[in-house]
Amino acid sequence: MDISNKSENQDEMAKRKYIHWQAEGVEKIPPNEAEDIQAVADQINAIQKAQYNMHRHCYTGTHARTQGIVKGRLLVEDDLPKHLKQSMFEKAGEYQVVCRYSSEPGDPGLDDRIPQPRGFAMKVFDVSGEMFDSTKTSQDIEFNSTPALDLADAKTTKEIVGLRINYGNDQKELYKQLEARPDTDLQKFRDTVRNTHLESTRQYSQTAYRFGEYVAKYCLVPSSDTQQKLYEETVKPDQHESDILSKWLKNFHEAHDAEYLLQFQLLEDLEDQPVEYAGKVWDPVKYPWQTVAKLVIPKQDSFNYELKSFWEDHMRIDPWLGLKTLQPLGSPNRLRRVGK
């Protein structure tokens, strides 16, 4: 599969004026953000303690439910246009990766029949370059199935997590609180997401990252015909079991290879493409996605219990330990640095 962006608009994309990652206004730290971040860290710890008391096992504060873990390869070709030859994509290469499919909430027992955002995480091994943690040689890349992040900045996160803690078991009251907010639609969207086969689900960074010289968001696009056809397969609460998503994944990976395109969307307009606030989608028509690599996952068992336990107990996904040329940017990512 060609991933080199050989299309009619390649020259036009190369001529665009992309904003440098250190340009004025890319990051603007608001007043009291440090206090908001600490409050969120305390909230997440409280959620983890509650889950520990229930399960007698400690899970991450979000993405607690593992749906599958697979190994594969990330392929970077040498004929990318100059503006896409950034960071670890500057040269052609092949990287070994391990990936985890998940459900986003912090409850590891969440019923798959309940529509919620889903996640995907990728740990890329043997990456060269200057790291935030000089002892590391891997790059972590995180995704979520919704393009906009409801926890759009540190202040919003503090408010929304607080509401979920207080009213999480009373949706009527929670919605009453959310409907009093100006971002009601953004906050309620998570409960109406399309509950479909994870192998057909497009995944997004939601937040912005340094991309070598520039700033970008990224996404992961299922690219094989088999995966794309699975988009029509949706969860039916009256027909499927509570672990249907992991079962679907296991059946798929035992019978099929999987392929994804890793694409980047570069920053061109700070007013229209905010970095500090992740609740707004960057318009893909104005700012097209551009392919930089391909993820290939061969047939395998995607629900190996030993691998699942090892990941949940010993693995950590944190882009703040990886390449400085892929530095997380904006308020939600500064929060994640402390929250880890």
User: How many alpha or pi helices?
Assistant: 9
Structure class: alpha+beta
Which word captures the global form? Answer: globular
**In terms of per-residue confidence, which ranges show pLDDT below 50 for 5 or more consecutive residues?**
none
What does the main sheet amount to?
Answer: 9 strands, antiparallel
Q: What is the helix fraction of residues, given as a range? A: 25-40%
- Please compute the radius of gyration using only Cα atoms: 20 Å
Order of helices and strands: HHEEEEHHHEEEHHEEHH
Q: Would you count the extended β strands for me?
A: 9
Q: Mean of residue pLDDT?
A: 93
Strand proportion, as a percent range, falls in: 15-25%
Describe this structure in words.
By secondary structure, the chain is an alpha+beta fold. The protein has helices spanning 10-15, 33-55, 154-167, 171-178, 184-188, 225-229, 244-255, 305-314, 331-339, and strands spanning 65-76, 93-103, 118-124, 139-144, 203-204, 209-211, 214-222, 258-266, 290-297. A hairpin with a 2-residue loop joins strand 6 (209-211) and strand 7 (214-222). The model has no long low-confidence stretch (mean pLDDT 93).
